[in-house]
Design a protein that fits this description.
single chain, binds succinic acid, about 25% helix, globular, Malonyl-Coenzyme A Acyl Carrier Protein, domain 2, 3-stranded antiparallel sheet, binds cobalt (II) ion
Length: about 375
């Protein structure tokens, strides 16, 4: 993608301009971001997803005296009638289940994959919504069907209402109001207060992002590091030939504290190891994702390949990461694998340039269902 070229998706801004002016900073309303857009899944298809137990879904009902929240899966019978106003179903991770929604998400790859979370689709009857709230992450809200009225504000008071099952702002004050029609899109940075009300039957697609938190990252990386600790720091035994006799037997020797600190510092010393663990963590598939093995499929190299929509693949200067695994690659193989992670496909000519060990790896990935010969996915 040429990030200097204006995009209709961003209201005529280039990705460079959008990231500089709006990303993480201020909202952007884009009329006809996708002209003529119509839902990629109809209501019945969306409800079929909400009925599956490997799909995360929620039902929010607005009642005269408050809100109710239920977690899916939802059989058809467990949902309110479509004629009843004031309810909404929100289906998470639709891009993992539907090829067209996955392709829609690809249009937002001017943001690093490491930041992309998922596409959520909401279906609402008239007056449905999740109430005034804020999200911790950036979001693009694309109107897919019907109309939604968005009220948004920069408010500092993020106090939440007590005693409600949803995160609803206690004192919502909006500054702007927009009615979105199919194809219109609203970008909101993190912590921006918003409230979307369905005006009649409505579907909204949320392209949501994720941002790791320091505590979460430290916990995950240290847990992985712990598994490799013995290999990294060895098994040197604490020696104390200089230990004098003590009168306070309960006191921990200072030399033992220094020994412990040095052991941990040694484990943390290799920046490449931490980068490697980070890549593995970022490409780890979500818990509800599984791949169908394709081991019986005949492969004849070279042929064009495309990553499965569920595959998370990234790279850094020294490694490529795919679905929680890391590989050290160099030279031509590394170049081609980085290209695969950027473009999510490679043509037959590119594939013909891989070394035999790299081709064997590609065969394994095809067998595991992580990647497919193009046209066979
Ligand atoms: C919705 O689609 O109803 C809610 C999306 C959001 O506010 O983040
Ligand atoms: Co929101």
């Amino acid at each position: 993608m040429d990030t200097s070229q204006p995009l209709a998706l961003l209201g005529g801004l280039s990705p460079d301009q959008f990231m500089k002016r709006h990303w993480h900073k201020k909202p952007l309303l884009i009329r006809q971001a996708i002209p003529g857009f119509s839902p990629l899944l109809d209501r019945a298809e969306l409800m079929a997803l909400a009925a599956k137990d490997d799909v995360e879904s929620r039902l929010v009902v607005r009642k005269p005296h408050g809100w109710t929240l239920k977690q899916g899966p939802f059989s058809k019978k467990s949902l309110p009638p479509f004629k009843q106003p004031g309810w909404t179903v929100l289906v998470q991770g639709v891009d993992l289940h539907d090829e067209a929604v996955h392709h829609l998400a690809q249009q937002f790859r001017f943001v690093p994959d490491a930041r992309m979370d998922d596409v959520m689709i909401s279906y609402a009857t008239d007056g449905g919504g999740v109430g005034p709230h804020f999200d911790s992450y950036d979001v693009f809200l694309l109107q897919a069907h019907g109309q939604r009225r968005w009220r948004i504000g920069r408010q500092k008071d993020l106090t939440l209402q007590d005693g409600v099952p949803l995160k609803i702002l206690a004192h919502f004050e909006y500054e702007e109001e927009f009615i979105l029609n199919p194809g219109d899109m609203l970008y909101l940075p993190p912590l921006y207060a918003h409230d979307g009300d369905a005006l009649g039957e409505c579907m909204t697609y949320s392209m949501g992002f994720r941002a790791p938190r320091t505590g979460e990252l430290a916990r995950e990386l240290l847990a992985c590091l712990a598994e490799e600790a013995v290999q990294v720091v060895g098994e040197l035994v604490y020696l104390d030939p200089q230990q004098p006799a003590v009168t306070q037997a309960g006191a921990i020797p200072e030399a033992l504290q220094v020994f412990a600190r040095a052991a941990v510092a040694k484990a943390l010393k290799d920046p490449q190891l931490l980068d490697c663990l980070l890549g593995e963590y970022l490409t780890e598939p979500k818990p509800q994702v599984w791949f169908e093995s394709q081991a019986e499929r005949e492969l004849s190299w070279p042929q064009a390949v495309v990553l499965d929509r569920r595959t998370r693949m990234m790279h850094d200067a020294h490694h490529v990461f795919i679905n929680g695994e890391s590989f050290k690659a160099g030279g031509r193989d590394a170049q081609l694998l980085r290209r695969l992670s950027n473009d999510r496909r490679l043509d037959a000519r590119a594939v013909s340039q891989f070394s035999s060990p790299a081709l064997a790896l590609l065969s394994d990935w095809c067998d595991d269902g992580w990647m497919h010969p193009e046209g066979a996915s």
